[in-house]
């Protein structure tokens, strides 16, 4: 006897083919989509190297590997099967990202570039708006509830390679957001003198940078975790750290996601656009000035105005907080609902 045919689950395709920080800043919006369409398979188009991170958010079922140089829009040639039931552009304000999704002929497409004509008050792109709020407001315009403060991730299950350490991540995707290695080394040296354990992390290609900071701070290779940790190991390290010190880059968003105290150094982009939620656990250091290029090839002048004394004081303050070293509250994502 033939088995009855089970129709495939409808699919929602979300495009956000950017970096780790962009993925984590997009978690509130992704969580809103997930809640609004519990019966759908949620597919996220994102670089393949972020697959584990995307799945760890609990907001998507499947990853569609998609990447383009820089922050460009990829061609979604990996999509197979029927067109998406719904496609959502969380990549940018188009039109390139809109057109990449439109090429798959989804039954419905939501984007800033070409708002759905059936919506009486479609969302408008605002330049001076925090990234988390931008995409939650976008979804709310289409009847999908999303809370920009819903940033927390489930705690990692694997142990930390350095529990209770101060984690220092000196690198970033662009030199414009990299505070000088010599200044990081000076801060690390004084943290160690204060009796704190410090470990350095770095992504692929940042081995020379982390080695320079370690050498300047008098740390041996056992204090360096460079070359790009697997996501689950990086997540466990950050989740159970006393504090994270970094520039405006992916690990800073990971500290927010795990409730880990952090100090983030801002330069070309002000913290009101990409910074952590308000609260004493997350310190931001920024000296206001003209907007810069976050993808520039030299350190931004605003970033260079941050001194070592203020960084040291901010890290020492947060490392001593009761919530340091992984003693954070339970993971409790906020409730949000809604549906187009």
What structural class do the secondary elements suggest?
A: alpha/beta
Strand order of the largest sheet: 8-7-6-9-10-11
Backbone CA Rg: 21 Å
Tertiary shape: globular
Task: Bin the strand percentage.
Answer: 5-15%
Uncertain parts: 327-331, 333-340
Describe the structure.
The protein is of the alpha/beta class and 340 residues long. The protein contains 12 helices and 11 strands. The chain has helices at 20-25, 27-36, 51-56, 96-102, 131-141, 181-193, 207-217, 231-239, 250-258, 271-274, 301-304, 308-319, and strands spanning 11-15, 41-46, 62-65, 86-89, 109-110, 166-169, 198-201, 224-225, 243-247, 262-265, 282-285. The strands form 2 sheets. Strands 8-7-6-9-10-11 form a 6-stranded parallel sheet, with helices on both faces. Strands 3-2-1-4-5 form a 5-stranded parallel sheet, sandwiched between helices. The chain is globular. The two termini are 40 Å apart. Residues 327-331 and 333-340 have low confidence and may be disordered.
